[in-house]
Amino acid sequence: MTVPPSLSQILKNEAARLGFHLAGITTPEPPAHLDVYQSWLAEGHHADMAWMSSDRACQRRADPRLVLPECRSILTLGIAYSRPLPASDSANGRIAAYAWGDDYHDLLPLRIKALVAFLEKQVGHTVPNRWYTDTGPILERELAQRAGLGWIGKNSLLINPEIGSYFILAEIFLGIDLPPDPPFTSDRCGTCTRCIDACPTDAILPNRTVDSNRCLSYLTIERKDALPLEYRRSIGDWLFGCDICQQVCPWNQKDAPPQVDPAFAPRQGLPVADLAAELSLSPQEFNRKFKGSPVKRAKRRGYLRNVAVVLGNLQDVASLPALIGALTDIEPLVRAHAAWALAQIGGVAAQTALQNRASLETDLDVLKEIHAALSALSV
Ligand code: SF4
Ligand code: SF4
């Protein structure tokens, strides 16, 4: 006798049809490892991302039922994005792989809403629900681990034994009983420490969390002001985000990566062919180029700041004219980092341009960077 598929299985099949590679169900019980997150906050490892530490957000993280009082099950989902080449084969001017294509914040809500509508059609009534995709105060990796999707690796990311860690999580809190899947209890990192060894800023902490203050993903995406001097060289050629601790992970090096939605394929203009030319992007051109892309989160000022730092690190004299031009950018943040980059490349043209700008510049932070650059060049 054929057993008809359960509602959970029907729902997971539909999730797969909608493009999700992983789906698992857990309960709305409070997370068991909340204390790890609380210590992470208490130690300031969230940097200046104040929304993470608000009282309301902390209360909700502690009890998923505060997110949705009717919640009886949580469906956790994973959708894979493009897998980059191993670190050693990457081109200059890198963008984290999740940001090569369309923004998942735009892409996933439609599919999540379609999945909820499908569920409601199956049960014949509306189902209270609330969903997130990296957008709410929940411990999504712990929920996903509890729903059987994978384990939290030493690099702090969720790793699935079949598809690795290049995937985005989403969660749907549902006011309906669905049987929970068994949690993923094994730790398959074993004695490996590749991610810890490869991190350029030693940002990975011993308790499977990351210190955002040092992490290139935070620095190049979330940080809005000047990049700390101590990390500028470590940024290397990362324009937006960082994939190093995923690129070195053996679980991401299987022969057959999952088939990825075309929306995550690199958009036109990526990878950036002429990095120096990015410095002349007007606000309108930046908006046009990165419309619908995760890169827009850095805003023009943050992106051009990063471009200047990467050009400084690449030390190619061919980028001198563009960097000299950026000394007059409308954004002080860009002017300041262009000054730093010019000092990394050096030479008479860089020194003259900095001296000329010093006599015209009125922003005190930029002037400080220009004087520091001139001092570095005079040594
Ligand atoms: Fe380190 Fe980069 Fe991983 Fe951040 S994303 S922890 S900087 S390797
Ligand atoms: Fe775990 Fe090694 Fe992957 Fe780091 S690189 S997450 S230690 S398996």
Would you kindly provide a written description of the structure presented here, covering whatever features stand out?
The protein is an alpha+beta fold and 379 residues long. 39% of the residues lie in helices and 9% in strands. It has 16 helices and 8 strands. A 4-stranded antiparallel β-sheet has the order 1-2-7-4, sandwiched between helices. A two-stranded parallel ribbon has the order 3-8. A hairpin with a 5-residue loop joins strand 5 (151-152) and strand 6. Helix 1 (7-17) packs antiparallel against helix 5 and helix 14 packs parallel to helix 16. Bound molecules: iron/sulfur cluster (2 copies).
Number of strands: 8
Helix content: 25-40%
Give the cofactors and ligands: iron/sulfur cluster
* Largest beta-sheet details: 4 strands, antiparallel
Largest beta sheet: what is the strand line-up?
A: 1-2-7-4
Q: In percent, how much strand structure appears in the residues?
A: 5-15%
What would you report as the Rg, rounded to the nearest angstrom?
23 Å
Total DSSP helices: 16
**Terminal residue distance:** 84 Å
Shape: elongated
Structural class: alpha+beta
Q: Mean of the pLDDT scores?
A: 93
Question: Which stretches are poorly predicted, pLDDT < 50 over at least 5 residues?
Answer: none
Q: Name the helix and strand elements from N-terminus to C-terminus, one letter apiece.
A: HEHHHEEHEHEEEHHHEHHHHHHH
